[in-house]
Amino acid sequence: MGFLDYLSDRFEWHNTWGERRKLKKLKKRPLQTVDIRVKIDCEGCERRVRKSVEHMRGVSEVEVDPKKHRLRVIGHVDPDKVLRRVRHRTGKKAQFWPYIPQEVVEHPYAPGVYDRKAPAGYVRNAVDNPQISSLARASSTEVKYMTAFSDDNPNACSVM
Fold it and tell me: What parts of the sequence cross the membrane (predicted)?
């Protein structure tokens, strides 16, 4: 029985070593959320998009929002690999989520920031592009006129 105990210990050590290696590999990547914009027309498209990333290594959760055309992947994953996998497996055009909530931007209706294709309450991310971000900031005269006719200003124009 000594030889069999030796073999079982040896194989058990080998399996734990492999598990340690997997965990070590997963721990290198931080837990993150990857948002991807993919056009989803029907339930079949939704299922295909979900299944394309569902069984990737490191994926904890997959959310598909067909109304906003958004795929959200949560887990220990590389964002570029997720994007490539969605493009390859579905054959659809996919890009990282380019929108941010409207409340974050000072001037949401500036040219280059406002996007008619964006979901309700979202605008284009102007922080990444310096040319657009300069247009999205209100000048001092605009701020002066906006506060003069604001409902929050008690000394606002009486016409309002």
Answer: none
